[in-house]
Amino acid sequence: ARPTAMDSPAKPAVQRAVRAPETELRVAPNPSRPGAGDAFVELTLGMEERVRLEVFDLLGRRIALLWEGPLEASTYRFALPATASGTFVVRAASPSGTHTVKATRAR
To answer: Whole-angstrom Cα distance, residue 66 to residue 55?
Structure first.
């Protein structure tokens, strides 16, 4: 009798290692006014996510909410608040993780 599919040993499933797309948060100078003290935050998402992007002073007080909501996979640029100068902590929180970076803005 010929073996049937039920009698045959199962073929091992091929699993590919899928690396999660990278999320990056960095401070970027203003390309149109280098050295002017304007600071931007660039957020790069490797996949669509819901993101909350906030700015805090060094005492942990929230200075600004730059974005809250879904973003597609891409790179986005957000300006630090014009009313604030000094050193800040910028935090991007999403279901895939939290990223923080220090930013300095001079007037």
So the answer is: 7
Q: For the full predicted model, state whether its pTM sits above 0.85.
A: no
Alpha-carbon torsion, ordered 86, 24, 75, 57, to 10 deg: -20
Of the candidates 79, 22, 32, 23, the residue with the CA atom closest to the CA atom of residue 55: 79
Q: How far apart are CA 91 and CA 65, in angstroms?
A: 10
Exposure b/e, 37-52, CB count within 10 A at least 16 = b: ebbbbebbbeeebebe
pLDDT tens digit string along 72-84?
Answer: 999 999 988 876 6
Do residues 22 and 97 make contact, with C-beta atoms less than 8 angstroms apart? no
**Residue 67: helix, strand or coil by DSSP?**
strand
